[in-house]
Amino acid sequence: MPFDFIRFLKASRPSDTIDVSQPEQRKLYIDFTEVRGNTVVTELFEHITEVYPDEPTCNLFTGHIGCGKSTELLKLKAQLEEIGFYTIYFASSEDLELADVDIGDVLLAIARRISQGLEELQLPPAQGLRGLLTRTTDLLQTEFNLTEVEVGIPKSETLPQVGVKANSEGFSLGVGIGKITAKAKGDTQLRQKLNQFLGPQKNELIQAINKELIQPAIELLKQQNKQGLVIIVDNLDRIDATRKSWDRPQQEYLFIDQAEFLQKFQCHMVYTMPLALRFCDEYGRLMARYPDSPKLLPMVRLKDKNRQDCPHYL
Question: Residue 191's pLDDT band (boundaries 50, 70, 90)?
Answer without folding.
Answer: confident
